[in-house]
Design brief:
Elements lengths: L1 H14 L15 H14 L3 H11 L6 H7 L11 E10 L3 H7 L1 H6 L2 H9 L1 E9 L5 E11 L2 E8 L4 H14 L3 H11 L6 H7 L11 E10 L3 H5 L3 H6 L2 H9 L1 E9 L5 E11 L2 E6 L1
Antiparallel strand pairs: 1-2, 2-3, 3-4, 5-6, 6-7, 7-8
Helix pairs in contact: 2-3, 3-4, 8-9, 9-10
């Protein structure tokens, strides 16, 4: 399921980054240079299979990129037709938990020991890419050192509405009990949301999420109005006063998710998320 999730739910798009920007002298002299080398080599490659060999050379020993390059080289097809606009370091030495939160696929591909090793010295590089039709997107590469050289670990996404939803399901899968997960729900909930209170009072209500796996997640609406916020559910609409609704309406998004149960059945849900002090938080589903 994790592998299918990577390839079908945006994994190929994540790897479809840009090509063509020249890097500085060495391929691994700095975090940003390691990322630029990825795109430079993509630009010089004749096809995805040829570039896959370069991916293996640039990848960190613990990164699943090498395995994907070997097994599914066509996942890198779009990268050779796109362009890198800019690359800059935006974070350094992120924690093991932050590494796990980058991607469920990445977290499932690494052992705890490998994550701790990556956490010892790493950086996050923001890569701005331009697609074939001129569309612009940002990806955030996790890179880490191996024998003193910077290597690619994984291309993540910038913090956004989808990030907090993915973190919800990641923590659900890692929680040892419903009570333990309830504390995570409270930490991820928006201050205006009743989720934290519900989780504290009735933690068993969230137990089902621990048996679910996130397959796909995407933003389907942004900054919906107060009326739409109230309509997210009868419970939330009844619990939220006007001030609360307006606070959520200021900056929000609707995130559509597909989740799979233990028996393999998939179903869709919609999360309302909103910002609090610049950080995306869960409001209701």
């Amino acid at each position: 399921m994790e592998r299918r999730s990577f390839l079908s739910a945006g994994g190929a798009a994540v790897l479809a980054l840009a090509a063509g920007r020249s890097s500085t002298a060495g391929d691994a002299g700095s975090p940003a240079t390691a990322v630029e080398a990825y795109y430079r080599r993509a630009s010089a490659s004749e096809d995805a299979e040829a570039f896959a060999a370069d991916v293996t050379a640039l990848a960190h020993p613990f990164s699943p990129l090498s395995r994907i390059a070997e097994d599914v080289p066509m996942a890198f097809d779009a990268v050779i037709r796109q362009e890198l606009s800019d690359a800059a370091v935006v974070g350094e030495d992120i924690s093991a938990d932050e590494i796990r939160s980058i991607s469920g696929f990445l977290a499932a591909s690494l052992t705890d020991e490998e994550i701790e090793s990556i956490a010892a010295e790493n950086a996050v590089v923001s890569a701005t890419v331009i697609g074939g039709e001129g569309e612009e997107a940002e990806f955030r590469w996790l890179v880490a050192t191996d024998d003193g050289e910077w290597r690619l670990v994984w291309p993540g996404e910038p913090e956004g509405p989808v990030t907090v939803v993915r973190e919800y399901y990641r923590r659900a899968g890692a929680a040892e009990s419903a009570a333990a997960f309830a504390a995570d729900v409270e930490a991820l909930a928006h201050p205006a949301s009743p989720l934290g209170e519900v989780a504290a009072d009735v933690p068993g209500l969230f137990d089902g999420a621990r048996e679910q796996e996130l397959v796909a997640a995407e933003v389907v609406a942004r900054d919906v109005d107060a009326e739409r916020v109230r309509a997210v559910s009868d419970f939330f609409g009844g619990a939220a006063d006007g001030e609360t609704v307006e606070a959520v309406a200021a900056e929000n998004a609707i995130v559509s998710v597909t989740v799979a149960a233990d028996d393999g059945d998939e179903f869709e849900l919609e999360w309302l998320v909103a910002t609090d002090d610049g950080e995306w938080r869960l409001v209701w589903l």
